[in-house]
Amino acid sequence: MFLDRSWVRARLELMSSYAEGVKEVKRRGRSAFESDPLIRMAAERGLHMSIECLIDSCNHIIDGYAMRDPASYQDILQIMMEEGIFDRSFGESFLPVADLRRLLAKDYDRLTPERVWDAVEKYADAFDEARRSLEKFLG
């Protein structure tokens, strides 16, 4: 498969726009998050779409460079570490977003506001580092 760098960059740009929404939720603070259902929904959607854009970008890179086939969403991020695209420290701290994706996309009935807020605090800025790593790899 051919790696379409412009496709990946477009997904990374979209990821950043969703991540900006997550950062805005974080800036507004926990009390606003807890008191306003629209802010909670914005956090959920922003996290979900940021993760989807990231996973899609990474998977496209894996296919484009004929890296090993991932067995799961978490494995996609693991491959990014194995290939040196994400450094080990960042990658290990970022792996749980794959599980968060499942909660946001499939198991949303088990998603709690506490889990969403924890993810906002932990990952709001992490998407920037993921993008920098992927952009550096793409050259």
TrEMBL record:
InterPro entries: HepT-like (IPR008201), HepT-like_sf (IPR037038), Type_VII_TA_RNase (IPR052379). It comes from the Bacteria. PANTHER family: RNASE YUTE-RELATED, UPF0331 PROTEIN YUTE. Pfam families: HepT-like. GO terms for cellular component: toxin-antitoxin complex. This is DUF86 domain-containing protein. Keywords: Hydrolase, Nuclease, Toxin-antitoxin system. The lineage of its organism: Bacteria, Bacillati, Bacillota, Bacilli, Bacillales. One of its GO terms (molecular function) is RNA nuclease activity. Belongs to the HepT RNase toxin family.
